[in-house]
Amino acid sequence: MDINGASAIVTGGASGIGAASARRLAARGAKVVIADLKAEEGEALAKEIDGVFVPVDVTNTDQIIAAIEKAVELGPLKAVVNSAGVGWAQRTIGRDGEFASAHDLDLYKKVIGINLIGTFDVTRLAATAMSRNEPGPSNERGAIVNLASVAAFDGQIGQAAYSSSKGGVVGMTLPVARDLSAVGVRLNTIAPGLIDTPIYGEGPESEAFKAKLGESVLFPKRLGVPDELASMVEELITNSYMNAEVIRVDGGIRMPPK
């Protein structure tokens, strides 16, 4: 699928995998809307790639619609990348046998709300806009890539909320792709492994920690870099025969319990 002259939206696009994906899509000629809460970073990246920054909380439907409307102003919306997400760790029950020590239910709902419901909300609204496009070759109107995680399959101790949310993203891939096939919109999901993003911090201690983490990767024994994920995003957007797939990009890692 050719995205030159079309518009694209990347949620969580101000940093990490989202930023790398935005750069890749812009290099393909797309006008990219950076949809994020990080205004300073988002505006700087938008300027760098000749795109637009729109402040978006993916739990706010009105803000999602505003980003889609801005994208449509720039060109037909043909590509969407859902990389906005959060993650917290907490065990399901406490050690003292008290109800109050069990997993914070509001925290669980928040992670589900951002990672799963937010992803679905962007998907349903963006696909609606894509359905209005003139069909291209193979009657294609657009493509969506969602970001899950290997935690969807190999959830570790304390990852109940995060793994639930990412498992939901994996689980909706096939049925949503089937729904969207009626209007010529493809949907795929990427499950990243350990990726070197700002979440790990900076400095010697951070580098030592990341090196230790990298030892658990099958090969190569290091963390992945955002552009290695973004290259797969680009492929899934532009390869018209990729649809309804969940692809692990993880160096072969299988996460241990902890």
From TrEMBL:
The keyword Oxidoreductase applies. It comes from the Bacteria. Keywords: Oxidoreductase. The keyword Oxidoreductase applies. InterPro entries: NAD(P)-bd_dom_sf, Sc_DH/Rdtase_CS, SDR_fam. Pfam families: adh_short. Belongs to the short-chain dehydrogenases/reductases (SDR) family. This is SDR family oxidoreductase.
